[in-house]
Records
---
Amino acid sequence: MDVAVAALEDLAAWQRLIDGYQPLFEPLAANAAVGLVPRYFTDAAGARRNAAMPSTPALPMLEWRRTADRMIALPATYRGLVGLGVDLLFLAGDGALEAVLARAEHPLGEMKRQLRAARVQFFVFRTQHELRDLGYEDFVEALGLPFLGACR
Amino acid sequence: MTQRPGKAQLPHLFRPGRIGTFTTRNLIKYGACCVSNYNGRDGTITPRELARMRVIANTGCGMITNQGAYPDPRGEGKAYFRQVAIFDDRFLPEFETIARYIHDGGAIAIQQILHAGRYGGIDLGYCIQPSVVPQTLPHFRPPREMTKDDIRQCVREHAEAAQRAVKAGFDGTEVTSFMGYLLANFNSKFTNQRTDEYGGSTKNRGRFMRELIDGMKQATPDNPLIIRLNGAELMDNWGGNDEDECFELMQQAVDCGVDMISVTVGWQEAPESSIGRDIPPGYWNYLAARAKKSFPNTLIAFGNRLPEAGMANDCIAKGEFDFWEVCRPLLADPEMVHKVAEGRQDEIRRCIGSLNCLSRLFRDLPYTCTMNPALGHEVEPEYAITPATVKKKIMVIGAGPAGMECAITAAKRGHAVTVFEKSDRIGGSLLGYAAHDLARPDDLLSVIQHYEVMARKLGVELKFNTEANAKFMRSMLHQFDACVVAAGARIDMAAYDRLEGRERLVDAIDVAKGKVQPGKRVVVIGAGKVGLVVAESLRKGGAEVTIVEEAKRIAGDVMPSFKWRHSAWVEELEIRTLTLSRVTRVTAEGVHVANGKGETFVPADTVIAAGPRKSNQEMFREFEWMIDELHGCGDAIMPRGLDAAIQEGYRLGVRI
């Protein structure tokens, strides 16, 4: 099994990670969801492809979805960037998910580091105002992503 | 006529140039600098914008580019809240005025056509792109894929926009692929995943660009066309073009006969900075040099993170590019070119790369400039430095940025100004900040150097090592007409009165100024800008650092354009950060910290109080009945930062 997929499917580990940050997710509206997908997959012809495409074959995805009272980790399916039912998407490069899980003390800090190093790519499917209304501002800022005033 | 000394010192920059059939008086191009957001919501140019452009027109540049106008009536190309429009002739009268200003100012006028693509559709709720690839920043609208009819229509609209620009009196036009706009979206394999003739190979991805260039050149054959193309997208790790692909696209543009390539760097969404204060000047020059070497017969303009005229002159002398493209330095000091020409470079107000200008655009706000409080207010007489009707003797307490800005502004108006400062030099808390800044301290120190130069040239009297208090003030009675309290802010140590062990706390300002040397295990209380700068600096120096913050997030008082940098540095330096946490006790061994998870002990040999901040306002009460006029500005009113200090100091100086 692909190492990245194995990391993705360890739901217990991801739930432990999420539980360590439940206060961060408290502002989120019910059903708000974040997706995590390995950035690369192997297609039917055996070629390595980037999953950041409008349409892909069915690939495993991890969802963090807000229920009425907490954030939970769920298995899901990714079929490309179009029509995805999440608000934010992380495409994790080789080794990134494993590194996040391995950093027991502050895994979101590792996520932030991976984002900064461009080993995790981040896509947004909502407008800024929608994200704020859904309660994402703290989470996005916790990852060191500019929520307002990006210009670099 | 005597040649101005600066021109002799920088002969390459000030020699005449040529673009198409047009001659330029020098090799300095004012870059369009995004958009100002000073205009109407409907795309009309306002008196505010015209007043600003009149100032820009007189900067002394040989070529001036007006800000990007969107070419389509639907507004798909419109990225910014108050971006100007050029999709209809009804907008032309104000464009004519701007072109006339530029010509009257002695420059060639270029109009930028800006279709923002993936960043566009601000009024529509969607944006258009070559493929449906969502953005990676939370500022934009969901994408729709362009059909081939959409592409053809887009090319037509660009051509018509170019015709309108020339009809309005502009000498040439410019299209931009910079930042991730529509042209860049087609060129880049990150955003262009089409499988038709507009996608796939670099040649195919460049097809839209080639058709755009052809369309615009056919529409305006006698007028130069400039194209802004990335030499580096900085998106390679995410599947964007590498530098070689960027230069292949430049070759395509050259083959289509563009008159100039303006080499740019980066996308808005790039994971790394391209123009921020943390990038050293000259860092990207190699891209321009590669372009000039690759395309020797095409004019190359460049200016990304190249704010210094001397460096630009040297680059031109070496043949690295043909025109210095400069924008933000001229927002900071519209007199910069004149000062350079006259050998008064020491008087230039340098752009410090704070990016408060452009980052405000994503909050739908007009841009401002930390260093130029009058930017955007040129139409308001209240912001103009005019001779004071009544010349006064003014005392300014505090030689930080607020006080010095007020002092030199008042001095320019003819007032006699004396600044009293308790330390031994100009700078205030900016000195401590610069000493520990992880970005580029030189930029911050340039602010202080500017004040030192201007104080000397304007005859501002400086009295150092002088503490202002009631006794001091009594000795000054009747000697001054007005007093400005610009005494800054301090760490409010009284906030810790009930903290057990408070006597062990050290003041972050004292640490920043070098009065206190922390040990190797440090706890910093407060994750505002003061705490973060101190923590980062100490960590970089090898100390083990923990930050304790009561709020949910760090960097609460940091400008949005810089928050993410502190967030990144804290992570990269592995600074442990405890938010939603409160110090309950300080002992000789360390601090006890309480939060939702219980209580933690953090070992420390130094505990630094870095907040809350409190304005030094006592003098307002003490001096109120001692002097005719009593004013205040900067952190002495409310603790904020450099931007507010300079803005308020200036506004007080122009009206006092």
---
Amino acid sequence: MESLEQIKTRAEAAVPGAKIDVVPNPGPAQQSSLLIDNEHAPAVARFLRIDPALRLDFCSNVTGVDWLDRTVKKTTKVKKLVDGEEKEVAETSEERIPGYLEAVYHLYSMTHKHGAVVIRMRTADRAEGARLPSLTPVWRSAELQEREIFDLYGIRFEGHPDLRRILMWDEFVDHPMRKDYREPDDYEYEPTPHDDVLERAKQHYAPRPQLDGAEPITATDSHG
Amino acid sequence: MSEQIDEALRRELQRQGVWVTSMQELYNWGRKNSIWPLQFGLACCAIEMIATAASRYDIARFGGEVFRPSPRQADLMIVAGTVTKKMAPQIVRLYNQMPDPKYVISMGACAISGGPFKEGYNVLKGIDRYIPVDVYIPGCPPRPEALLHAFMELQRKIDSQKLTGADKAEHLDPAEPSEFPVPAFGKHDLEPPANRDVFHPPNIERT
């Protein structure tokens, strides 16, 4: 199979205006991926599917990722005049990357028996109602998994034929797999409370003012 | 029974071919040997429950082979597996639809407390938050022998239930509720998260 750079070049030529980045994976898996801009994603996806050399006709897996705001430290070597002498000095700059939500698609080809090609799409921000184009019209197998991402991460897929919650009930408002999700505080009884469970358990202990001092411990509303 | 006739005399009479019994004994003997479970399963515990019903373990030896597809005809609810919060209202509704007397076996770690998924966002931390449970079987999943053991424990319980008097069985007391409120789907959790009339968690002793 072609390298990701070759796929990127051909896809950008086939879909005018498309902007594709290769996201390198420095880990042991070495499974780098293609980041596709949201506007042209359906067209690029269709190209990946019908191109005779690629024929990525099987979308095996769709997942979501929640990226929080983060700062990345970059070290660059700059030549500077120090005490009248030119020296190489390492300068660190901090780059602040705002958070976003991501949908990751794993594609294989049943025809050519190759894969996986990983493609990604990113939302503009982590706000409620963050949007991405749906790739269900291209790969039917993405339908339930895009619903699951909508349910657990809150990404709205535009063009999805039936975007409803799939694991949680319809009345539910949170998105449990997001990193800022706070589970309901229905602590009742834990035979061996430990760590953060112990901390939460303490809020539910009955106050013992004669032993613990004047301030009684009161339960707090976790969604207050 | 023992109030009316001496146990030794009764055994002696039985040896002579005279069988003396009471209405309560006869009634409970019939009930405990024809416990019809409700036919439903929730997770991997259900596979063990099916194995219990199949020929190798053969729950028919205890009169429990008639798995009923309708709650109207069932005596026993075997909660076999993980109860998700989305499924919990349906479980309570099925329990409410069963006629008295009815019994519940909480099978496996998940049905008891949520088990390995206790802190999961969509897992109920034990079915005893909403309905009363008669027998708990630990295990993940419990083996068929364990389910048979729970079944025999339930038979013992039924056998010991009184039909009259102050300590008569719960289902004969009109004041005892036989239906429990079905929890509603809330914005963040089931509402209420537990039925306080049914669920009594133990107090933690802290030092």
---
Amino acid sequence: MVEFLGIYVYPTLWTVFYIACIVGPLLGSVAYLTLAERKVIGWMQYRKGPNVVGPFGLLQPMADGLKLLLKETIIPSGANRIMFVAAPMVTFVLSLIAWAVIPFDSGLVLADINVGILYLFAISSLGVYGIIMAGWSSNSKYAFLGALRSAAQMVSYEVSMGFVIITVLLYVGSLNLSAIVEAQSGGFWNWHFFGLLFPMFVVFFISTLAETNRAPFDLPEAEAELVSGYNVEYSSMTFAMFFLGEYANMILMCGMTSLLFLGGWMSPFDFVPFTWVPGPIWFAVKIAFCLFVFLWIRATFPRYRYDQLMRLGWKVFLPLSLLWVVLIAGYVVYGGKAVGA
Amino acid sequence: MTEMPIILPAIPEIFLAICGMGLMMVGVFASKERASSLVSILSILVLIVTIFLVVMMNKGEALAFNGLFVTDHFAVYMKLLVLIGSTVALIMSDGFVKRENMDRFEFPILIVFACVGMMMMVSANDLISLYIGLELQSLSLYVLAAMQRDNLRSTEAGLKYFVLGALSSGLLLYGCSMIYGFAGTTSFTTLAAELGGHDGHGSVGVVVGIVFLCAGLAFKISAVPFHMWAPDVYEGAPTPVTAFFAVAPKVAAIALFLRVLMEPFGGLVDEWRQVIIAISIASMLLGAFAAIAQTNIKRLMAYSSIGHVGYALVGIAAGTEAGVRGVLLYMTIYLVMTVGTFACILCMRRNGQMVENIDDLSGLSKTHPKIALALMIFMFSLAGVPPLAGFFGKLYVFLAAIEAELFTLAIIGVLSSVVGSFYYLRIIKIMYFDDERDAFDMPVGRSLSAIMTITSVATVLFFIILTPVLDGASLAAASLFSG
Amino acid sequence: MIIQGLAFYLFAFVAVAAGVMVISSRNPVHSVLFLILAFFNAAGLFVLMGAEFLAMILVIVYVGAVAVLFLFVVMMLDINYVEMREGVLQYLPIGALIGIVLLAELAVIGGSWVVLPLSEAASAMPTPPIDQVTNTNALGRLVYTHYIYLFQAAGLILLVAMIGAIVLTLRDREGVRRQRISDQVDRKVADTIEIVKVVPGSGV
């Protein structure tokens, strides 16, 4: 019995505890990301943003959440019930399970698997299912159009994202996320952001915008023509799950950007007092900065036209990232950076 | 750094593949009006350069890519046939492509890629490289068959070819997996070593695998009972593409057949011989009898090619060096005759429209005596009338069969070629003794008349070059049995 | 090891069940979704075998790209599936007969299974043991060095498939106005905007 506890029960409990430690703060950040979005865009447009509920509007996310929770869930009569309900769950769950492999500090990771980066990429490529299922099962034209747009867009940008990831892992010589971050240690000049991989950072960052359906690539939910796209038929908690999933995905994408290009938990300078600040804080700061850029872009740029979006993905990013794969591979073989040959 | 694999023996293939990709860039970036003819001319040049490369690499047996690829005299001989056939088909297509709204630069590029596939087939030394080469070739051919995409018959041909081709690939793969499952290797060299020492008694699994493999390959050479796609595809596909189909892929598939049966499974000759004999007899008979009722000349050529494949299989069934030599000679002669016949068919054009009925040839001797003469030569040769080329092809194949004591097979072959000569002679009768019709459009173009002249002269005077061709074939056949 | 065993049976059972559902479910969209479920469980089996790279690639390529396109197509098709299924019963006897014949053949072969003596040695692959290199590394070594010929040739096949798809379907439509980015960027303010001083009350 004791043996059974030691081998199976305690590790499981610990894992559940770790998961809670990750998911709790994550959901909190999502809530406050929505507030930050409204505040930041407000400031950029010389408005105040929400400022009524609580001091500086800090309780606004709570109020919003409570409102959504208490509303009635409406399932349209023509909808495919099972898929209609499953779609938001898929989106939400996928946005959470990806965090299992994100390292917050050296050794501070739930599952330090060999192919972490591929796992992340796989999970992010599954995100399209929630949307496409929602669009189809709603049995509504707007929702379906939004879902189709979204699916085509995400699949297109995934291709170049994949190649960007390949350049990084070629450069590092490992698929393990911790190893990728360790390779960027020793000051900010060692980050992948500076140097050969910079163009790939640009491609990756723009692709993450498209992957998360954010402005200026927010065609799937273009309110002007599609009255908010695939989630038009959703209400209350089902809608809230989409909302949470999307914002959690944004944070995840910024986390990926930080891990791949901005040195993850590494401090920008390799000496005191910067090294006193713990790794997770640096990681959070980097994610926050990327998120700020997301919001900044939304406040700045108009929406892309669909053919322009496809052109950018297939005719600019794909050739560029392919070329860079060749360049980096050449550098790795002939530039004295050969690893594990 | 890891070692580079040996790639030198595969230089012609690599050159051709790279040029194919380069030509695609040329086609994309050249101006729309010039792209097609420019790429076409460049592809012909590339194919000719490849022919020279193949000849230059003719230095006996050499393995490349960790034994996945082999080149020897046999491979060189077959590759030359394939490349010459493809080049001539491409040259012949020139005028047709422009007239029939097929003026797209992808056409020669697909032929180039099909050639790469066929060369890979010929040089395959592993079940996987066999399959990969076969797929590369087949995929290009499916697209080529459907090239006239606004023509219902062409698209039907493409689709039919694709579906049946996919089925045959499935059979072939099933056979390969059986063989791998029982023998534990896909390499021809290892297979030969394993199966050779068994006194001709492989395990049942291997034999079943070989049967499936043969079925898949028989599809590709359109041997009975896997022939049903051939008449429809030959009829539906654009005529230059049909000419290409009739020549190059058939030679490559026969080469593959020879290599697979002689090298890895040479030790099991008693096991696969019955299968080949059955296929061979069925093909010869069907080719002879079914062709009689045809009215469309392209369909007729399809049945004729089924019959010729049957004759070639007689040589394979012999399973001896003489048999292989006969097959090689047969394919060489078949190539020359078929190319010439299709050059004649490409001349059949009235008021800007292609005509394909045998009746349209009526009285050709009065309107176009030269074309009629050439076509008569090819028909006599296809029928196997001495002293034309076709006679020698049949002679050496049947001799090999008799040497291997396959008397029934040889007798059926001779009888069916007598039946077959009926429909060849019928065409000659229509051309020379029936009432004349409206003349065909003139001129036929310099390349077509040049091809007709060269091939008909070669057919008539084949006995002069018989000795050097036979020497080459013997060398090639010997290289298949040396390993 | 209990966990691994349970996980294996779970994955295997769900994979088979999902496979059955793929061919038996009435709604084709559900079929595709079950197919995806089957892919996932296959990926799970790969993970159990220690082939985590293959598992991830399976999810990325098949679930993340191929199945999405399937779903796309199936959702946009407008076919009466009930009508389509009517023929199934008609062909069932022939199909079953062929299936039984093949099964019988397999049984006969399976009964006389003789592995050739040399095949043991031949099938020993040149892979280093799993505890020395990651399976990504081992796979890369095989695919990019030993089997580079097949790898490149397979690439050529895909290229031809792509050319084929374009040749057979792409049509240049007349009268389509395309965006020319270079022209847009080349535009100067002076070419397009004219500043006119208008005296109030006089019009332009």
